[in-house]
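C-alpha cells please, single chain.
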Amino acid sequence: MTAGFSVGMLIPVVDEVGQNWEQLRHVWYSLRYRAKSIRVSTSYLFRIVVDGKYLLIRGTRFPNQFQPVGGVHKVSPQGSAALSAMGVVGDDLIPVDPGSDGDIRVRVPGRKIVEFFRWFDSREGREDSPWREFQEELLASGILPPDKFPHIMHNYVRRDVDKIRFSPWSDSLEILVADVYELVPTPDQEGALRRIAQAGHRDLVWVTPSQIQRRGATPGQPHSIEVAEHAKRLL
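Here you go.
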C-alpha cells in the first residue's frame, strides 16, 4: 500500500519535471554561465510538402545552399525596450542591414537566460506569425501567384530549443531556437504549388526526406544541390 502510494505521488512529479525540463535547463544555464555572454538566435521555418517532397528555397546569404522558407523573428520597439532592460545587446556577427534590423539574434547575459526565455515565451513585443517571410520569399519574389495566396492556414508543429554549445563560428556559447510551422494549403494553393514543382524554378528545389538527411546527396547520382543543415528541423 505504501509503495503504491509512493508511486502514485511520484508520477505527477515526474510528469511535471518532464513538462518543465526546458525551463529547468535554462535555470541551470543561468547559474553555470551567469558571468558569460550567450548568443541566442530565434527563427521560424515553414514545412511545405507536396506529393511527399519538401520545398526548399535558395539562401540569400549563402546562394549555393537551399533551405526552408522562414527567417529570424523580429522584435518590436516595446520588445527592444524589454530586452535592453535585461542587458541584452544586438549580435555583431552578421552586419545589420534593412533586412536584418530588429532580428532576435542577440547576446544575452548568462544570468538573464531564464528571464529572456520567459519574455520570448510570452510572445509580447516580438513577431508571432510566420506570414512575413512567406510573403517576402514566395509572393513578393514572384515565385507564387499572390492571387492564390491572399492568406494562408498553417499548423504549429513544435519548437526546437537546442542545448547550449560553443560555436566556433560565433566564438561564443550559443542557443538556437526554431519554431516549425506546416502550411495547410487550400486545393487551389496546392494546385499552384504542384504547378511550380512540375515547371521548376531556379530558386527552388523539391527534395525527399532522405535528401534532407543527406544534405542534398542522392546515392548513385552526382551531388548537384547543397541542403542546409537546419532543413532537418522540418522532418
